[in-house]
């Protein structure tokens, strides 16, 4: 049933119609500036218009969705922090004290926190979206991180939450995640989908030392040798290598694109989810902007394979959706330029050919 929903959602995603982008660019070219001089702010505005298929489209409701989950692979010593930080940070998000809360407040975005697979019982917590598929994934170095049914359920959670948010008026969705250990499955997914060796797409995550880094690369190599994942079956790859939050983000991306809503990608883990989504439906990348290039080694390789050029390069490697939140600001600025700047005719300024 979930697999049919995933297929149906992917089948509704259409490549962007370039006529909308061209019409938006025609207006941008009439504004009082040398043509193209607002660079990527113009690109963002034209992209948003093309995604929404509306020359008057506004950007009001902005949502950052944080999917949180745990990872059995932490038993291999691949993170610099203990697993409990996942649930502790979920509590911090709900109290408004995390980095993402500060940045989301700054850009006027709502933060939603989804328990899709944290190894903790949150009964009694308020404000949390409870969509737990399992109490964490299993250790991908030893066995499949998820069953295929769990992977599909996680993707389906993301699709449903995208649909609910869009029905409630969300204009843009920003990806967030929290999960101690999740740069390991993200790097493993990157290796499978880009075809690069593990060492080329693996970084230090929360900051493992040299020995931890060597262990991490070795764990990923072992997992790839064990599972022999076939990139032509992206859901199976996700199941073997994991991450329930990565599955949730995959669904969020698919659900948003199917409903013509733009998605701002955060860093390394969000981009791993985008790789899964793009294998399910290549046209999905039309609906994505990479908000930033993470300092996590290997992120650039993933972005290049998706054909995405990051907007910001701030050496961020926090996750949570922090880079994506900053991208919201740029998108909003691009649209303000598009809507509010005077044209040459309105301002009585001489154009290039007059
Ligand atoms: O978004 C990124 O590029 C990013 C890069 C490195 C680390 N993180 C965050 O750090 C956690 C994963 O790091 P690790 O070392 O535990 O695998 C997880 O909670 C992510 O949100 C995020
Ligand atoms: C404290 C902390 C906050 C985080 N936010 C996202 N990943 C994180 C990892 C740690 C360790």
TrEMBL record:
Q: Which pathway, metabolic or otherwise, does it act in?
A: Nucleoside biosynthesis; alpha-ribazole biosynthesis; alpha-ribazole from 5,6-dimethylbenzimidazole: step 1/2
- An MF annotation (GO) of this entry: nicotinate-nucleotide-dimethylbenzimidazole phosphoribosyltransferase activity
User: Which Pfam families does the entry mention?
Assistant: DBI_PRT
- What's a single GO BP term from this record? cobalamin biosynthetic process
* Keyword presence, Magnesium: no
The record's listing under InterPro entries reads: Nict_dMeBzImd_PRibTrfase, Nict_dMeBzImd_PRibTrfase_bact, Nict_dMeBzImd_PRibTrfase_N, Nict_dMeBzImd_PRibTrfase_sf
Active site at 320 (proton acceptor)
Mind listing the UniProt keywords for this protein, alphabetically?
A: Cobalamin biosynthesis, Glycosyltransferase, Transferase
Q: Which Gene3D superfamilies match?
A: 1.10.1610.10, 3.40.50.10210
Keyword Manganese among UniProt keywords:
no
Reaction(s) the record says it catalyses: 5,6-dimethylbenzimidazole + nicotinate beta-D-ribonucleotide = alpha-ribazole 5'-phosphate + nicotinate + H(+)
- List, alphabetically, the CDD domains matched: DMB-PRT_CobT (cd02439)
E.C. code: 2.4.2.21
Q: What role does it play? A: Catalyzes the synthesis of alpha-ribazole-5'-phosphate from nicotinate mononucleotide (NAMN) and 5,6-dimethylbenzimidazole (DMB).
Family, similarity comment: Belongs to the CobT family.
Designated name of the protein: Nicotinate-nucleotide--dimethylbenzimidazole phosphoribosyltransferase
| Species, as recorded | Desulfobacca acetoxidans (strain ATCC 700848 / DSM 11109 / ASRB2)
**Gene this protein is translated from:** cobT
């Amino acid at each position: 049933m979930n697999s049919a929903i995933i297929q149906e959602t992917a089948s509704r995603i259409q490549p962007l119609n370039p006529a909308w982008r061209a019409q938006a660019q025609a207006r941008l070219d009439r504004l009082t500036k040398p043509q193209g001089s607002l660079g990527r702010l113009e690109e963002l505005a034209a992209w948003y218009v093309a995604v929404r298929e509306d020359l008057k489209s506004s950007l009001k409701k902005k949502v950052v969705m944080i999917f949180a989950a745990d990872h059995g692979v932490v038993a291999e010593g691949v993170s610099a922090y203990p697993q409990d930080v996942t649930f502790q940070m979920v509590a911090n998000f709900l109290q408004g004290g995390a980095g993402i809360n500060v940045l989301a407040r700054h850009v006027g975005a709502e933060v939603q926190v989804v328990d899709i697979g944290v190894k903790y019982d949150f009964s009694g917590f308020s404000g949390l979206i409870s969509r737990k598929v399992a109490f964490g994934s299993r250790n991908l170095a030893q066995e499949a991180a998820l069953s295929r049914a769990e992977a599909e359920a996680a993707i389906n959670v993301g699709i449903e939450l995208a649909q609910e948010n869009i029905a409630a008026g969300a204009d843009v969705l920003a990806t967030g995640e929290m999960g101690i250990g999740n740069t390991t499955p993200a790097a493993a997914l990157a290796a499978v989908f880009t075809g690069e060796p593990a060492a080329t797409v693996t970084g230090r995550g929360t900051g493992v030392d040299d020995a931890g880094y060597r262990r991490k690369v070795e764990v990923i190599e072992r997992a790839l040798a064990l599972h022999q994942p076939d990139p032509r079956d992206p859901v199976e790859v996700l199941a073997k290598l994991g991450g329930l939050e990565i599955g949730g983000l995959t669904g969020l991306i698919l659900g948003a694109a199917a409903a013509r809503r733009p998605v701002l990608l955060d860093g390394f883990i969000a981009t791993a989810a985008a790789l899964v989504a793009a294998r399910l439906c290549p046209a999905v990348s039309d609906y994505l902007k990479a908000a930033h290039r993470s300092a996590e080694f290997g992120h650039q390789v993933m972005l290049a394979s998706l054909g995405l050029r990051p907007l910001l390069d701030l050496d961020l490697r926090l996750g949570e959706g922090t880079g994506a939140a900053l991208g919201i600001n740029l998108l909003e600025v691009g649209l303000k330029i598009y809507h509010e700047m005077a044209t040459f005719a309105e301002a009585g300024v001489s154009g290039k050919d007059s």
